[in-house]
Every structure is written in C-alpha cells, then in structure tokens.
Amino acid sequence: MNGLSLTVRVACLACLSCPALATAAGNVSPQSSGVILGATRVIYPLNGKGVSLSVTNPRDFPVLVKSSVLDEGQKKEAPFIVTPPLFRLDGGQQNALNITRTGGDYPADRESINWVCVQGIPPEPDSAWAGDEKQSSDKKVSMSVQVIISSCIKLFVRPESVSGNPVRVADKVSWKVSGKILTAANPTPFYMNISSLTFNGAKLNIARSYIPPFAEEKIPLPAGAATKGTLKWEVIGDYGEKKEKTVQIN
C-alpha cells in the first residue's frame, strides 16, 4: 500500500481496550462506538518505511476515527505519525491506517515498545460531519451517553539484529523465588508478553503484562504462598499465538 511494507502480525479482529470515556449526548441509552483493529500487535522494523493496520467500524452509524502512537507509559506522543490521523468511517466499512516513524533514538540490540491508540467517536444528534447518515428525528435512536472507547495495542520497534519470534526463545526466561517475591529474568532482546501466570495453581498478577528485554520483572506472591512448586505461564507470539511454559521452582 503506497510502498509501505506490511509487517503487522495479524492475529484476530480484537484488541485490548483502555478505559472508556463517557460524555453526555442525547436522552435515551448508552451506545458504544468501539472500532475493531485488524491485529493485536504491530511489529515495526526499525529501519522500515512504514506499516499499515486495518480498522473496521462494526456499527450501523458513522464514527470519527482518531489515531495516535504513544510512548511506553502512554503519557506522551511517540515519534510516529498515523495517516489519516482523523477521518470519518461509515458503518460496516473498513479503512487502513498507515504508521510511519518520524524520528526517535531506538536501540539496535533489542525491541522497544510504543502503543497504537485508536478512538471511535460517534456522532452527536447535531453533528454536521455525519451528513446524510444522520437518522431522521422520527427514526433516530438517540444516545444519553457517548461511550468513546480508546483501543490500544502494542507497537514493537524491532531492529534488524533481532529476528524470529519471542515464542521460540521463551524457554530462556528464568524464574526464582526469594522471600515473597517471584523474579523473572529475560536475557533475550524480545519483550516477553504474558497472557497468564500461575504458581501452584494460584493466579499471579504481573503489573505490566510483559518482561522487557535484558531485564527483570518482580512479581509479589500472595500471603501464605509456598516458595517451591510449579509455575506455568503463557507467552504471546508475533501473531497473537499463545504457548504455555512450565517451570519447576525448587
């Protein structure tokens, strides 16, 4: 598409959603405006010219699609542009977002993480941009609350020196318990994305849901937890596939 290299790893038409933003808009019932992204993650080659990501409006009314790329903490803009940054997407239609890096100093020996965030903004009863798609007053289902859902998925900036799929090297992650802390050490250049984590059958919560490259992540154990036993975790690959790993901690 316009010379852009398509490196989005398509997994399923679903994505993680950030908390919804609600604003008053009408007088009947709440209505969600979430759009559907064509992947659960984006792999961006460090020296690539760009990637594309599909976005679909599953509703029967138009929405404004607003997109941006944020830094790891989702606090500020990352050095990427998304085109088009704001556009109308009719109900049941699909369009492509083109994501292009504009700068930034990214390491050449490991992945970096940013976030692609996409909002679907529904029309208010008097929205001029909705045009002919606005429902007539006698047929319109008005909204008492606009539910604007911001869908954010991970964007991994991957240098040429990092090849393959994190699933294939997940066994290199080591785990140990010291006191009431479980420590995971990731010696690989990949982000290890974790979908589930249990120790002796008890579910554990990992704050960031991933272990950064060449780094450790400390996870508190619940009160009364044993210091030995069976740890199971699921790592997520480039295409959204999940692979369960089992580790005995002695």
Structural features, described:
By secondary structure, this protein is mainly beta. The protein folds into two domains: about 10-160, Immunoglobulin-like, CATH 2.60.40; about 165-250, Immunoglobulins (Immunoglobulin-like). Helices cover about 0% and strands about 45% of the residues. The protein contains no helices and 21 strands. It has strands at about 10, 20-25, 30, 35, 40-45, 50-55, 65-70, 80-85, 85-90, 95-100, 110-120, 145-150, 150-160, 175-180, 180-185, 190-200, 200-205, 210, 215-220, 230-235, 240-250. Strands 1-5-13-11-7-9 form a six-stranded mixed β-sheet, with no helix packed on it. Strands 16, 17, 18, 20 and 21 form a five-stranded antiparallel β-sheet that branches. Strands 4-6-10-8 form a four-stranded antiparallel β-sheet, with no helix packed on it. A hairpin with a 2-residue loop joins strand 16 (about 190-200) and strand 17 (about 200-205). The radius of gyration is 21 Å and the shape is globular. The N and C termini lie far apart (about 50 Å). The model is unreliable at about 1-30 and about 135-145 (pLDDT under 50).
